[in-house]
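Async update (no meeting this week)

Hi team, since we skipped the sync, here's where things stand on the single-chain job. The sequence we agreed to prioritize is pasted below, unchanged from the tracker. I ran it this morning and attached the output directly underneath so nobody has to dig for it. Comments welcome in thread, and please keep replies under the output.
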Amino acid sequence: MKSIKVNKAFIGGIIGFVLATLLVTLGFWKTILVLTVTIIIAYIGYVLDEYDVNIKTLLTMMSRKNR
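Output:
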């Protein structure tokens, strides 16, 4: 049980450090934009993984030229 608390504290510390660095270097609104885009892309990746979507098939469907 103790190792779980240490891991959560370590992960929380890393997230806090990254967030603080983003806020200082980019500013508030750009940091919000980066976090929003990251969450959206992570959700899309989760959905693609959950429903076992084949990316190669999607890319070939999108890249076909109309003949």
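Quick observations from my side:
The chain has a mean pLDDT of 87.
The helical segments are 2-26, 28-50, 55-63.
Reply here if anything looks off.
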